[in-house]
Amino acid sequence: MSDLRKVYEAAGQGHLFKAFEKLDGEGQQQLLAQLAKIQDPSKFIEEVQDAIKYSSSISGSKTFAPLPEEARASVIDCKPETMERWLSSGLELINKGKVGIILMAGGQGSRLGSSAPKGCYNVGLPSQKSLFQLQCERLSKLQDLAKTSTPIPLYVMTSGPTRQATEEYFKDHQYFGLKPEQVVFFNQGTLPAVSTDGKKLLLESASSLVESPDGNGGLYKAIYDNKLLDDFAKRGVEHIHMYCVDNVLVKVGDPVFVGYASNNKYHIATKVVRKRSADESVGLIVMDQETKHPAVIEYSEISQELREKTDSEGLLLFRAANIVNHYYSVEFLTQMVPQWISDRAYLPYHIARKKIGCIDPETGEFSKPTEPNGLKMEQFIFDVFSSVDMAKFGCLEVDRSEEFSPLKNAPGSANDSPETCKANLLARSARWLKKAGATVIGDEVEVSPLSSYSGEGLDKFADATISAPKIV
């Protein structure tokens, strides 16, 4: 304890020990355990200072261009034979047990008025299925399509607040038809909050730091800390599809995407959708002009002129909207993950100014501020794109109406709400049935993920009339 205290005092964090002697043994051990996780507090504070400087730098100093044509493909205008080749390749890899899934599910449904994990949320479908159930049933259907006897491993990344509830939810629902041994739960890490000047760690109580999840970029450290690379090797997994739980239309383990990426021998690939409009506030997948590596830029980093600029086909020049849906070669992850988490150049901290409840170490009184009083750190999953050669990076454009409808906002919001998610999934169901030759009457007709993964297998409804409400 005395050695740890000296390290923290040398780093300007002596205030953390103001009430230490008054704590009972359990409280002292709790604080020391938290502090021990930060191997070098002086270095951490230096990295926070770097993040503050980075956030205040001029974003317009970046130069970028659309990805080169050879790094891009689109399912919207792809040749049928190419799509079939990708599909066959992906299904073959799944059949051989070479594909795993990482589900990012650390968030709570607080914006939705729920304290449960977001994956437990029900957007109001006729089936009343939650996001978790829809996605697990899609995975079951994919296993059937691939005719595999090897269950596809599903790695579910949770956070401290969601871990127990998520595991219990899966157990209470018999893993939604999956085998318990194919589902692996693991936690993302946390990062301590600091004062607005970035120099002092904040205390939630005399025995605990203020901590928050380390962002989606924490995936890589979580993979390393939880020895998932070893698990991939043990199971023979060579390809990973990663996605976020809040996308109600996601194609879990999409064999077309896996086939596209594996056929091209990409280290990392990403799915994108076309921007709704020039002013849609989304991140964009681009090429850094200076390094010639892939990157993601924020909406604010592109001028109005470039937002509205079009190409020779009349499409927005910068239109590749990031939907955080990625493919990884396990060989590349095994090589790079240790580097990514040890070198802050790959995964810098990004800051968010927040109102953070904390105690005054001098008085021991807890306060809830009305104005931002601190900084929370997070990491972004796409920052590691800078380590990928452009020749080893692929970007697959997909149809938004088929594959992307995120649940981000409270009920009643204009976009990305439970209502829009429900409407988009039901609209997709109706399209699939009509394409199969059915007549659909009403809006409440839902195709179960166990009936069809991507619109296939619905021929039995040809010439049928299906009236709402109905689940097929």
Give an overview of the whole structure.
With about 475 residues, this protein is an alpha/beta fold. The protein has two domains: about 40-410, Alpha-Beta Complex (Spore Coat Polysaccharide Biosynthesis Protein SpsA, Chain A); about 420-470, no CATH class. The protein has helices spanning about 1-10, 25-35, 40-55, 80-95, 130-145, 165-170, 220-225, 230-235, 255-265, 305-310, 330-340, 400-405, 420-435, and strands at about 65, 70-75, 100-105, 155-160, 185, 190, 195, 205, 210, 210-215, 240-245, 270-275, 285-290, 295, 320-330, 350-355, 360, 365, 375-380, 395, 440, 445, 465, 470. The strands form eight sheets. The chain has an eight-stranded mixed sheet, with helices on both faces. A three-stranded antiparallel sheet has the order 1-13-14, with no helix packed on it. The protein has a three-stranded antiparallel sheet with strand order 7-19-16, covered by helices on one side. A hairpin with a 2-residue loop joins β8 and β9.
